[in-house]
Amino acid sequence: MTVFGFRIPAAFSLLIWCVIWEIIGRLEAVFIFPPLSGVLVALVKILGQNNFHNAAIISLQAFSWGMLYAVVVGVAMGFLMGRVEAANKLLGMWVNIFASAPLSSLVPVLMLLFGFGQTTIIVTVFLFAVWIITLDTYAGIRHVNPSLIEMARVFGAGRVQLYTKVLFWAALPEILAGVRMGLIRAVKGVVIGQLLISVVALGQMFARYSRSFLLEEFWALTLILFVFALGLSSAIGWVEQKVEYYAGTRN
Question: Sorting pLDDT into bands at 50, 70 and 90, what band is 237?
């Protein structure tokens, strides 16, 4: 951020928003925003509770399995659509529809198909993440320089070697970008799934805090999820920077 020609660090910008939040909370201008200091106190309290630890483990398991399936299926579909035109015509429209659709409306349908349990939450996480991973992988495969493919074939690369040693590494920046966006959507998916399906784990905590108007605890739990999603996103972004030079090989 730049103010009057001076570049202000991002951390200072965040501090400004924290001060504004504290002032609004102290003035009680908006009842749903308690003072940030109270939220931070509640955050420390929540982190020390056993029920939060148990809820976090359950949610992390659903998140991890859902993301794992989303990455495997999303990358595979992206490769298929990028390399086989018939598959792109057959799947492309549906992938774009689901990528832009309000997936929360499908959760009750998933509940009827898979029941009230962890399986439905895992499927919800999967559906929230897989489509953006597919689209980004597809974009990466389509932007691979054809000369790389021809060179690999000239040197006798088979189909497996072409996919694993050429196409995958050339498309890796886009694949990682899709994974980064997908995991952010997956965090939203795991909470929505737990809220709408069986009200368990973190979803149960959100429901209890909102029903009881425990707004400091509600926002504290929200901040925990924000930090978790931002931390994972930053880690993937760091890996993206490390492999960024692969994109240059396609030009």
Answer: confident
Q: How many CB atoms lie within 10 A of CB 186?
A: 28
Residue 84: both structure tokens together? 């086989």
What is the reported pTM? 0.78
What is the pLDDT of the chain when averaged over all its residues? 80
Write out the two tokens for 73. 């299926």
Q: What is the DSSP letter of 196?
A: I
Domain boundaries, the chain: 40-248
| Residues forming beta bridges with residue 6, ordered by sequence position | 3
User: Residue 224: is it exposed, middle or buried by C-beta count within 10 angstroms (0-12/13-18/19+)?
Assistant: middle
Residue 199 neighbours by CB distance under 10 Å: 14
Question: Region 195-220: what's the mean pLDDT?
Answer: 77
Whole-angstrom distance, CA of residue 182 vs CA of residue 71: 9
Assign a CATH topology to domain 40-248. Answer: MetI-like fold (1.10.3720)
Q: Which residue has the tokens 């931390």?
A: 231
